[in-house]
Amino acid sequence: MLGVSGLRGIVGASLTAELAVRYAAAVGAWLMERAGSPAPRWDARAHAGTFGPGRVRVVLGFDGRIGGDMLFDAASAGLKSAGCDVLPAHVAMTPTLGVLVDAEGADAGLQITASHNPQEWNGLKVLLRRRGLKPGRVDACAPPKTLAEEIVARFHDGAVGARPWSGVGFEGPMQTTDAHARGVRDAMDELGVLRLIRGRRMPVLVDCVNGAGGPVAPDFLAETLGCRVTAVGERAGEPFWHAPEPTAENLRPVGARVRRARAAVGFCQDPDADRLALVDEKGRYVGEEYTLVLAAMALADLGVVRKGSVLAVNLSTSRMIEDVAARVGARVVRTAVGEANVVEAMKREKSVLGGEGNGGVIWPRITCVRDSLSGMALVLALMARTRKPLSELVRSTPAYAIEKRKVGLARKEDALPALGRLKTAYRDRPLDLQDGVRVGFERAWLHVRASNTEPIMRLIAEAPTADRARSILGDAARAIGP
Fold it and tell me: Are residues 107 and 18 in the same domain?
């Protein structure tokens, strides 16, 4: 699948090394054009790993899944063939890649990942940074739709702008990834909560599903935040030990381990560690929707989210976020689904926090990418300051039930007739059409859209009770028809 969210496919079938080379070369050619296509030239400093001004640099990483190193090498070749210099991060979490792009003042990041997709999948995801900003300023993020479409068009054109020997890119030194954990630590310290978290010495379990979080998250929790850590799935490069999407069904074995470890919380990452699901101290799946809500509660407790603050979330995120914002007089803006859309709104509104109900916390103090490390730190800050167990914090939020269904599609465009029938059926209800069809009800909503990352149509309903949410989905299915 190729779209504004990047490239994804099944390794050895719809995704090959040759395809990765071509896609990376198209990304590189587009970056070179954006930079003004510097003339091909031999650069002794770049060859030695010291890059002079004007050269286009891309941080390259992968999420640790098997086969990722093969695609990493292919993508590196494609980028260098277009004239870009590559800063290799090797196994790195997607939010860490964003941190590195900002720290280095690089032009872009390219991550080899299929996020929560099953083992056989992989893909390539682009992060962009505005040119001319000083290194260290937080800016790197998924490209907005207009720029993503330009990259896709460049790929389809087939003209990737390969350079002669004198104009190819070089590979720089291996990037260290500890800047990410260090940034979260410093933010916690500046907010006056780091010492409190460390003093509590909370027992936690972290499940990295044998993805990119394995080399980072356990040490981050133990060394940086002072937790007593039980780690599972920390061996990046081995097969996922359970299905990687952090759903209730897939995380059932994690709940049992949380109980055995007597942990105060279970932190569950997806393979590229941009999403975070929670398990409470009783081993019960809290779910991804609560991650962003608890992060917002933490920042409200710390005075960061306050009257006049703006939070940005997508249309499929739980309305719990509005309830939390209302407590302190903050405002919520909603966007089309997709990290890039949320970040675009965050930058426009100067949001102090944003994200998605899939466990994606975007804290712009650290990075403009969904970040599981920020989510862990903020949840622990809330637990430490309130001295309440996770289950009690969850009970303190207004209760809603979210029900979800999927319908297979041969093509994304096949969803259009169904969406048209929904618009007609609910024409007397409040409608938001910026991404599929979102219908408003009394304390409830329905959202139906075609996925950007999978060949499916998603139907999501939220209501005060599961029965009401299922009823809304049933009515929607009947309106859509066979």
Answer: yes
The pLDDT of residue 72 is above 70:
yes
> How far apart are the C-alpha atoms of 131 and 226, rounded to whole Å?
38
Q: Provide the domain count of the chain.
A: 3
pLDDT tens-digit map of 39-67: 556 666 666 555 666 789 999 999 999 99
Residue-averaged pLDDT of the chain: 93
- The secondary structure element, H or E, covering residue 463 is strand 456-463
For residues 74 and 212, membership in a common domain is answered with: no
Six-digit token pair at 368?
């403009």
Domain final position from 176, 191, 212: 176
Q: Report the side by side order of strands in the sheet with 360-362.
A: 331-335, 310-314, 353-356, 360-362
Other CB atoms within 10 Å distance of the CB of residue 82: 26
- The total of other beta-carbon atoms located within 10 Å of residue 44's CB is 8
Is-contact 204 257, C-beta < 8 A?
no
Contact by Cβ (8 Å): 268, 208: no
For residue 340, which amino acid is it? Answer: A
Q: For residue 126, which of 97, 84, 93, 163 has the smallest C-alpha distance?
A: 97
CA gap 191, 55 in Å, rounded: 37
Is the domain of 142 the same as that of 235? no
Mean pLDDT of the region 384-401: 95
DSSP 60-101: EEE---TTHHHHHHHHHHHHHHTT-EEEEEEE--HHHHHHHH
Residue whose structure tokens are 């682009």: 126
User: How far apart (Å, rounded) are the C-alpha atoms in residues 164 and 285?
Assistant: 55
Quick one: which H or E segment has residue 478?
Answer: helix 466-480
Overall pTM > 0.90: yes
Task: Indicate which CATH number applies to the domain containing 448.
Answer: 3.30.310.50
Instruction: Identify whether residues 361 and 447 lie together within a single domain.
Output: no
Q: Which of 347, 372, 395 is the last residue of a domain?
A: 395
What gap in Å lies between CA 120 and CA 356, rounded to an integer? 25
